[in-house]
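User: Teach me something about this protein's shape.
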Amino acid sequence: MASKDNKLSRLAQERRERNKGVNPDNEPTVEDRLARLEEDIRRLKIEYDIYFNGGSKRTPYDTKMRLESHLKRLGDDRTLNFAQRYHYNSLATRYASFREMWRRTMQGREEGRDIAAAARASNHEAAGPFARSEFSCADVRHDVQTVKGVYDALMEAKRSCGEATKDLSFAKFHRLIMEHADGLKEKVGTERLRFSVDVENGHVSFKAKADK
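Assistant: First, the predicted structure itself:
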């Protein structure tokens, strides 16, 4: 009996030792999960490009299923705030565009068309049309959620036009907005600004004006 008790005690001690390194605070944040989703989409696109150009004999089916599982879990998360939900929707729309492009390319492959040419022709279409976005904000310094929404819309517009996005981090964008907001408010005589992001003639249009 004593031997059995000692064994149970030893097993319990081993479990405690294993759990010492488990910290619930290390759970990935929503921002981490969104960043991972964006990276997963980028990687999957690369894998499909390799496949369509003859560098791989197998479609990246496993990677695609893992990404879609992650996409669904994040989409079902009701804790996302407005900016996070906007970012998620942008990623989901982008992935849906890529998935449709891959479907058409696969169909072309089955019908004997030039796969590489079809992939190149569809690549630009994958970004999809950009929908004009507007945001109203009275305090750009503290209303980070709204400013993040403006930033995400601007990044999405840039991507839809094939423009670089790496040179403008959110921190840099927020700083620029704060530097110009007070002067603009004083100039137009308002306490609230309206920011608009659009694509006009293939170029990004970003404007700020009084929100009357």
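Now, about its shape. Residues 138 and 192 are 4 Å apart (CA to CA). DSSP finds seven helices and three strands in the chain. If you'd like, I can walk through any region in more detail.
User: That's plenty for now, thanks!
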